[in-house]
Amino acid sequence: xxxxxxxxxxxxxxxxxxxxxxxxxxxxxxxxxxxxxxxxxxxxxxxxxxxxxxxxxxxxxxxxxxxxxxxxxxxxxxxxxxxxxxxxxxxxxxxxxxxxxxxxxxxxxxxxxxxxxxxxxxxxxxxxxxxxxxxxxxxxxxxxxxxxxxxxxxxxxxxxxxxxxxxxxxxxxxxxxxxxxxxxxxxxxxxxxxxxx
Length: 197
Known about the structure:
This protein has 197 residues and is an alpha+beta fold. It has a single domain (23-195), classed as Cyclophilin. It has helices at residues 2-21, 45-56, 90-95, 107-110, 167-175, and strands at 23-30, 33-40, 63-69, 83-87, 118-121, 134-137, 158-165, 183-195. Strands 1-2-7-5-6-4-3-8 form an 8-stranded antiparallel beta barrel. The termini are far apart. Mean pLDDT is 92; it is low at 4-19.
């Protein structure tokens, strides 16, 4: 029994550091505060690699949070959500080509649900259409998971990490004034996004 306990302790000692290597810390510095993320490259490798490629190329720097969806301002009333959406600067995106679209990593595969603070890729009508825009959930948003009703195809969105500090900043962005299309009247500047050491 003692040998089995020793083997189990050694195995867990090896697995836990490997899991930590799959988590990448990232900071989003905005004009209203900093949001710190933990990106799960182990469970969502394609989506995490895509996001980190934009981060490492500094393509989000000078970008913006441009959309804040709340219960009181939604265009779609059939399936309500609460998120803030950000991405690259539109001017810079016109001048600098991005990396294209990526395949959807469904929550049924990654086991990363859209809970409070989850970061996920925005996408269009097609499942494999995510490129660079991302959103952060405010409160649990199960309708964004695989099988949820928000995406007409039922495929959901690709969560790939979570906020570990700065949800107060996310909530401040979400509470800001919007037009009748969920767009922030004064977009919040993304000063820079970078990997934390």
